[in-house]
Design brief:
The chain is of the alpha+beta class. It has a domain of 281 residues. It contains 16 helices and 35 strands.
């Protein structure tokens, strides 16, 4: 009989200081600092004042001079002459998404797959009538313009490019297949030239493919195929990339603010001969290739191949980027600001305007809210963004609680936004823009309770990895699809049938945040969701994954497997091992009552059960569905439809421990087969043009959305925390149309350890961002999409905070950052020690319950994997945004909890 499965435990909370110092050290070292956020959040779905429409023929837009001459004798002319390309935003661009649409294709046809073109035996779902798009940095009038375009990163020698059979392989190349034949002595190249002037070979060779060192399937923004409907129109989202994301393009750097979007329409006419593509004409003898301008032809061949004429049909649209890097004058004062991820979008807009008006560089670094509060108390920062007040229960020692009790603090509300359950659902029938979710259905997704969320390998018996999951009524196994769940069908009666693919779930972590805590509070406030989290199945018999039950629960049992992948038996029955969640004192932990500040991946299933083909270790939940660093990267991951699921064994890859052989990404989802659900925030969802699921308020059947009206209505549910100056939306008190995941963010200021310079810069910061900074718009200093302006009452509180900060005089009348003084207590007192709960009770789910300490949960499983941070970060000075969550994920275990009682 196998030994009991490892359980998830809580470690002691003293590591918070180490976490804090690690994040600070990494930021100082430049490993997690970047300023790539830019100046605005952009709604890719809505046109802005910089929207532009360019016509293929006789263009009269501001981009007319950039279009190539059109040749009426071209074989493409007839089917291209009516095309128009519209782009939703062309200026003030950052790393975001913009919407691109087309009109003018022939009606009644639409995108055709290759089986509908003379019965081709080579399948591609996009064989005629589609669009391709890329970003270029060079001069549109130059002969080598195509060499400055980011194209070719989707081609990989292994074929693992996420495209599947959506396109002909040679459309992803920069040259024709004839040119990558090593026996071709007349092969030509079409290199990629970086903005730095380096020429990179554009064709793969036996020794490798150099372009992948600059951009690859996981990083390139090239659009290989965008479909067209039978009405002759189509649309897709495009991701402009700044120099921080794509340094080889340099867009947004000094003297290089303008780059270009190039859209290449593909119709039904072939663009060359066998040097363009060697794909055979299906109507021929199997070896005959197409001839130039042959009609009703498969659209094989690259859009940038000089031996094809598809490039002549391009439409060029200018992309004007916001400057990256510092725009503050040399010698400007600097003020460090830390804290909430919810402020990333708006700080990127406020920073340049603050530079201009306050002559101060406000460098912003995000970290877990609890750590930001800890750093604020210790004087490592003078101001922190957070959604909860500093509280005794979050401190590690009595000394820290004493410090808090004698520390004078100020709180100013500065932003209103929301947590968003964003999604991208793009199927063969088109993009689905409506998804309805209940608290219980979200609870199912967050607890790996569906079979598709459990690690499974193609070499496994598919029933074994999910054998621990409950089998709903009237079925013989866990639901195969999310849309098989009757609850999903009931919530989405008109669209459930279109969701014939399971989503990849994208969760930020493992570091915690107040935003994540708001999600758990919402679930706990709903009686159905709370019952599910406590172990009660829904009315159709679906129950929670046993790994997420409290340890000791009679249902928290799972089967075990031996080295041959067979069930371990106890007599004639399957042997069951106890699992579940527990605290450091071995008491059970229930998700129905504890509002965590992190999303956990507690299922310890590993796959494959039997190693094959030289595999030396299985993959687990962290590799199967990796965390992303933060809320912003969750939105970007969903937009790119690349879950980074590491389920392909690469015997040549070295793992982080230096061992040869590791699991690598299976690639992005295939066009027409994309379904991503991500926990992000409303500004990030808007920035990447994602749809946001409608959710039910707790104990309600009414759906709500994070519109301006929904966010505003939720503010009626503001409730005081332990510090009356900080109120927060209580999801249990939100009624429709209020959006229950609305969050108010505050600027927390440590007056006791502030200096005169701190107080001047911080008061100026708060004064500006709570007045002119609350005007919605896309200009620097304005409030980006996804935020709601603060209320008049909040603005008044912020003004009072500004006055108090400016008027504050240290008790010892010595303006120093030293903490040797003993400040007087008064209206700004940080907390009363006598009010600290020594009983060890877990912080409750109500809005008035403050968070307690963040401590990493430790698995007894020595093989547990953790999320890794990106190693491709461009460090810049000035307006830096340090996104430190990924670093914490590398250093510590993959689950962070907040817990009282073990301090």
């Amino acid at each position: 009989m196998s030994s009991p499965r490892p359980r998830v435990r809580f470690s002691r909370a003293g590591v918070v200081r180490a976490v804090s110092l690690a994040i600070v050290a990494l930021a100082v070292a430049g490993l997690v600092s970047l300023d790539s956020i830019g100046r605005q959040s952009a709604d890719a779905a809505a046109a802005t004042s910089s929207a532009l429409t360019a016509k293929w023929l006789a263009d009269d837009s501001s981009a007319a001079a950039e279009q190539p001459a059109r040749d009426a004798s071209s074989g493409h002319y007839g089917e291209m002459k009516n095309l128009s390309i519209s782009v939703s935003q062309t200026s003030g661009l950052i790393d975001q998404a913009i919407s691109v649409s087309v009109t003018g294709f022939a009606t009644g046809v639409g995108t055709r797959d290759s089986t509908r073109v003379n019965g081709s035996s080579v399948f591609a779902s996009n064989a005629q009538n589609f669009l391709q798009a890329m970003q270029c940095w060079g001069d549109p009038k130059a002969d080598n313009f195509r060499q400055t375009c980011q194209w070719g990163g989707r081609y990989t020698p292994s074929g693992n490019n996420g495209l599947g059979s959506s396109a002909f392989p040679d459309t992803t190349l920069r040259v024709g297949t004839i040119d990558i034949d090593p026996n071709n002595t007349n092969a030509v190249d079409n290199p990629f030239v970086t903005v730095q002037g380096k020429s990179v070979a554009g064709k793969p060779v036996a020794g490798g493919y150099a372009i992948l060192d600059y951009f690859n399937p996981a990083t390139s923004n090239e659009v290989t195929t965008a479909r067209v409907g039978t009405d002759g129109t189509g649309s897709f989202d495009f991701e402009p990339q700044t120099a921080d994301t794509a340094p080889q393009l340099g867009c947004g750097t000094d003297g290089h603010l303008r780059c270009w979007l190039v859209v290449v329409p593909r119709g039904t006419v072939f663009g060359g001969d066998n040097k363009c593509s060697q794909f055979p004409d299906p109507a021929g003898d199997g070896s005959t290739t197409y001839t130039k301008w042959q009609k009703n032809a498969l659209q094989a061949g690259s859009p940038v191949n000089p031996n094809c004429d598809y490039w002549d049909n391009r439409v060029v649209v200018p992309l004007d980027f916001a400057p990256v890097g510092s725009r503050c004058a040399v010698g400007s004062a600097e003020q460090r600001v830390i804290g909430s991820q919810l402020m990333v979008g708006v700080m990127s807009s406020w920073q340049p305007d603050l530079c201009s008006k306050q002559k101060t560089t406000y460098s912003f670094s995000t970290n877990p809210d609890s750590i930001a509060r800890h750093q604020l108390l210790e004087g490592q920062a003078a101001v922190a963004y957070s959604s909860q007040p500093l509280s005794p229960g979050e401190q590690t020692t009595n000394e820290a609680r004493q410090t808090l009790a004698t520390t004078k603090l100020s709180y100013a509300p500065v932003a209103v936004s929301g947590v968003a359950i964003a999604f991208l659902a793009e199927f063969d029938e088109g993009r689905q823009t409506q998804l309805n979710l209940s608290p219980r259905l979200v609870a199912k997704l967050l607890t790996q309770s569906y079979g598709f969320q459990v690690p499974v390998s193609t070499s496994d018996d598919p029933s074994k990895p999910v054998a621990h999951l409950t089998v709903p009524k009237n079925t013989s196994r866990p639901y195969r699809l999310l849309s098989d769940d009757p609850e999903f069908q009931k919530l989405n009666p008109d669209t459930a049938r279109f969701f014939q693919q399971n989503p990849s779930i994208v969760l930020p972590g493992p570091s915690g945040s107040d935003a994540v805590r708001q999600v758990w509070k919402w679930l706990e406030a709903d009686k159905d969701a709370a019952a599910f989290l406590a172990g009660t199945p829904d009315e159709w018999g679906m129950g929670i994954n046993p790994y997420y039950l409290p340890f000791g629960d009679a249902r928290a049992l799972v089967p075990s497997f031996d080295a041959k992948g067979d069930y371990v038996l106890a007599g004639d029955a399957r042997a069951l091992s106890p699992v579940g969640l527990k605290n450091i004192d071995d008491s059970p932990l229930s998700l129905s009552t504890v509002p965590l500040d992190t999303f956990i991946k507690a299922d310890l299933t590993k796959s494959p059960l039997v190693l094959v083909n030289g595999q030396v270790r299985p993959f687990d939940s962290i590799q199967f569905a990796p965390y992303v660093d933060n809320l912003l990267s969750a939105a970007r991951t969903a937009f790119r439809a690349d879950p980074n699921s590491k389920t392909i064994w690469d015997p040549t890859k070295f793992n982080p421990a230096g061992e040869k052989g590791d699991w690598v990404s299976s690639g992005a989802q295939v066009p027409g087969q994309k379904f991503m659900i991500a926990i992000t925030d409303t500004p990030s969802a808007a920035r990447y043009g994602l749809n946001i699921a409608s959710i039910r308020a707790a104990n309600s059947t009414t759906l709500t959305d994070p519109t301006k009206e929904g966010l505003a209505a939720a503010l009626a549910a503001l409730r005081p925390t332990s510090d009356e100056r900080v109120t927060q939306v209580d999801p249990a008190a939100v009624t429709a149309p209020g959006y229950p995941l609305t969050v108010v963010t505050y600027a927390d200021v440590n007056l006791t350890l502030s200096t005169a310079a701190n107080r001047k810069s911080i008061s100026s910061l708060i004064a500006q961002i709570t007045t002119t900074g609350q005007v919605p718009g896309t200009e620097p200093g304005e409030l980006p999409a996804g935020y709601l302006p603060i209320t008049s009452a909040m603005a008044a509180q912020a003004a009072q905070s500004v006055t108090a900060i400016r008027a504050f005089i240290p008790a010892n009348a010595v303006d120093s950052t030293s903490d040797s003084s003993t400040p007087e207590t008064g209206d700004y007192a940080g907390g009363n020690i006598s009010s600290f709960d020594e009983s060890g009770a877990i912080a409750g789910g109500a809005a008035g319950a403050d968070p307690s300490l963040t401590a990493p949960a430790v698995r007894d499983d020595g093989n547990a994997r953790t999320a890794s941070a990106s190693d491709n970060v461009i460090a810049r000075s000035g307006l830096a945004l340090s996104l430190g969550m990924g670093a914490a994920g590398v250093l510590f275990a993959p689950m962070l909890f907040k817990r009282r009682g073990f301090l």
